[in-house]
Amino acid sequence: MIPRFTLPLAIIALSACHSDSPETKIQKAFDACVKAIEDGDASVPVEVLSPHFAGPEGMSRDEAKLYLMGLLRNEKIGITVFSDRIEVKGSQALQNVELVLTSRTGGSVLPQDASHRQFLLQWELVDGEWRLRHLEGSVNP
Prior knowledge:
Oligomer: single chain
Distance between the termini: 68 Å
């Protein structure tokens, strides 16, 4: 006789084996980057960058790392995401995000600067991990 709790345990075990969808993995990576930037930690966003990363004006992965380290050393950044859409096609993905960035310098409580921006992030699957390949951004009025 099979104990009655066997079926629920089997369902739980099978669901634990189910891996996250590509969209969920990308969303988790993006959310971790947002939190790290707000915490002033450049290491998480840099870790997500592809070895082939190309940013605005041809910024390389190493240049992005230096830029983030310098920026987060001097400023406190806040990020509010308004919309976020992810479309995956095989080992490539596009993420379109609309957000507001706020910036405080020194010990200031209120932001000195706020800007409404839209970013297009191009992701690629590298060794089983989603990495940010390219980033484009624009300021919205």
